[in-house]
Amino acid sequence: MAIYVVLEGRRRGVYYRWEDCFAQVNRFPGALYFKVASRAEGERRLQHVSRILQTSLEASTSSMTNLTVDQLHATSCNDTNINAVTAVLSVGLLVGLTLGPSRTIE
Predict the structure, then answer these.
(1) Which N-terminal stretch is annotated as signal sequence (predicted)?
(2) What is the pLDDT of residues 9-52, one digit of tens each?
């Protein structure tokens, strides 16, 4: 039985049917999904990504505490989603995956 994990898509999660996974990633910009051997492995990978994203968010929040209002505005306008992209790329490096838009990673 194939099990699919969606890391970036309409809804992050573990799916047991390709049709359900496909509905989450089809035409979703930057979709990231892959097939795993078991639900436990899928859940473990989701938790790993969640921890990395949370750590990245906390680091970016703490680094912004000393910024002025003008600096905050410039950061929010120019660096939208940079931390999320960095975290997802870091996940790929940590687990040895090759990342690409809307591709299956096995």
Answers:
(1) none
(2) 999 999 999 999 999 999 999 999 989 999 999 999 999 888 88
By the 8 A CB rule, do 104 and 34 touch? yes
Question: Which pTM does this prediction carry?
Answer: 0.53
Sign of CA dihedral 102, 54, 76, 64: negative
Residue ranges and CATH numbers for the domains of the chain are 3-105 (3.40.970.10)
State the pLDDT confidence band at 67, using cuts at 50, 70 and 90.
low
Residues 101, 77: Cα–Cα separation, whole Å: 24
In the numeric block, which tokens belong to residue 104? 């299956």
Strand blocks (E) in 56-105: 103-105
Contacts of 101 (CB under 8 A, 6+ apart): 29, 30, 31
Q: In sequence order, which residues have a C-beta less than 8 Å from that of residue 23 and are 6 or more positions away?
A: 10
| pLDDT band at 63; cut points 50, 70, 90 | low
